[in-house]
Amino acid sequence: MDNSYRPERYNSHTSGMESDIRSVGWRSPSNIALIKYWGKRKGQIPGNPSISITLSKSFTETVMRYSPARPGKGRLKNFIFEGSQQKAFADRLRSYLKSVTALYPFLPDYDLSIESRNSFPHSSGIASSASAMAAVALCLTSMEQQLFGSPSVEDSFFIKASYAARLGSGSAARSVYPGYVLWGRYTRIPHSADEFAIPLNDLVHKDLREMKDSILIVDEKPKAVSSSQGHSLMHSSPWAPVRYLQAADHTRRMIRGLSSGDIEEFVRIVESEALTLHSLMMNSGQGYILMKPGTLEIIQKVRDFRNDTGIPVAFSLDAGPNVHLIYPGDFADIVRKFVEQELLGSCSRRQWIDDRAGRG
Ligand code: DP6
To answer: Is 182 in the pocket of ligand 1 (CB under 6 A)?
Structure first.
């Protein structure tokens, strides 16, 4: 396991014992879904299993300070994001913390103060709830470990953090692990579960372990439709049952492809998942078109490039216009040239993030 890409515990120490303030800290990367989580049931239970790769450069760094409060009167006193108060996210965190008291029953007895920053610009359109909520859940689990010595086993630590992260944002459940991650019950993978994610790296063929994700920023604006809105549209979508069947089939084929190193199958499924997500949105509610002209220009050029060169670059999309190019690390140099020469013209202010996934 290459630890440099792991969500990283970088500041877990006790400071100022005399004032009784202690702190924990985590750096947790964002992830890109290969099999998309789209649609959920009550309790943040996903409509289908999803598979993602956790990135490395695009991360949230969070430090949580805590001190004993009057029993039952503890609260989140401060939330500072990149140097300033952020009320909207602070409110979201307060209700999140309330919702996880059954998991962390000591929380009402402590005052918390949280500071956070993202490595990527706020305006880059990269989903930050996955990395942000994963970092918070990891901090809470570390706090429990500092206070009570549990969870004492590494596996249980990450299962608990992933479980808690899921309650903050579904995709965050996957961001507590590096590399390939599966979230959702899939009968052929023992220990897979709807309530938490598990790492998949051990079954991945060596040719597919070191993947790149070049993120092309077509539009920097925040998402036109929030994920929660998007998920809820699936409740009334006539396509939902078919989509869940397709996702199950894609999960089965993706796992088989990852084990055998079948990059062509990988590319087929990743692109089909991206296009399915957008077709579901086009067929939901008022009919949301989340791609921009630049998105389509890039998709066309990526397909031409793949046909001309045989280099297996797949495009993926989140619920927005930005394009992720996913490909084996061996092709990094040639793809970088392709991006710089052919694709940056379709990006907002020629912005892109040359990210990579962790290695299993
Ligand atoms: C399109 O995890 O952001 O990125 O659980 O409501 O917070 P909530 O949704 P969220 O949804 C992510 C949707 C997606 C696909 C994916 O990451 O699997």
So the answer is: no
